[in-house]
Specification:
The protein is an alpha+beta fold. Helix content is 28%, strand content 27%. The chain has six helices and nine strands. It has helices at 5-18, 21-25, 34-41, 66-76, 103-108, 152-158; strands spanning 29-32, 56-59, 80-87, 91-96, 112-113, 117-122, 134-141, 165-173, 179-181. The strands form two sheets. It has a five-stranded mixed sheet with strand order 1-2-3-4-5. A four-stranded antiparallel sheet has the order 6-7-8-9, with no helix packed on it. A hairpin with a 5-residue loop joins strand 8 (165-173) and strand 9. Helix 3 (34-41) packs across helix 4 (66-76). The chain is elongated, with a radius of gyration of 19 Å.
């Protein structure tokens, strides 16, 4: 017997809401990936739950379609949507969009670095690129992990000698703060 993501999420939602957790704790923030939010907004019982306490949603994946942003706003009643970027290697969130930005901008922007996170975009030789040039996103912070367990070779592939994590994402910087993801 296989259990898919939707059925697990459905079980989780029903368990929490059937036990009254949404009334007791009045959750104000919900977080997940785009695929999790697709499952939530399309869940057959989503309209039966009182979600009026929700004030914000963090979506930790990209690209997140404008349609999904609108579904979250309409079906969950959340208008403060924040797109975050992070990885297992560096931290759950190293960059995020800002409250009040349009869904179109949030969908195509890798976001502003969070406090205590260094971000740079480099060319193939590791040199920082100029504005409106394409390069690889690199991050560095005190929460980056030390390496892959038992795999020094892989660790050396993604972390350079200065402890910059090379994400493999192609991006370009449009101004001092905004980094845009190169899609497609």
């Amino acid at each position: 017997m296989s259990i898919n993501h939707f059925s697990l999420l459905g079980f989780f939602i029903k368990t929490l809401f059937n036990r009254g957790f949404h009334h007791t704790f009045r959750c104000t923030l919900i977080g997940g990936t785009s695929t999790m939010f697709v499952d939530i907004v399309n869940h057959p019982d989503v309209d039966k739950f009182n979600l009026t306490s929700l004030q914000a949603a963090l979506i930790g994946e990209f690209p997140c379609s404008v349609e999904l942003w609108k579904d979250i706003e309409q079906k969950l009643g959340v208008t403060n949507l924040i797109n975050v970027y992070g990885t297992t290697e560096n931290r759950p969130a190293s960059c995020s969009t800002r409250p009040g930005e349009t869904p179109e901008k949030k969908n195509h922007t890798v976001r502003t670095p969070l406090d205590h996170v260094e971000v740079k975009i480099v060319d193939n030789d590791g040199r920082i690129i100029s504005v409106n040039k394409e390069g690889e996103l690199c991050t560095r912070d005190h929460l980056s992990f030390l390496g892959y367990w038992g795999d020094k070779e892989l660790t050396v592939q993604v972390f350079d000698n200065a402890r910059w994590y090379h994400t493999g994402l192609l991006e370009f910087q449009t101004n001092e703060w905004e980094k845009k993801l190169v899609l497609g």
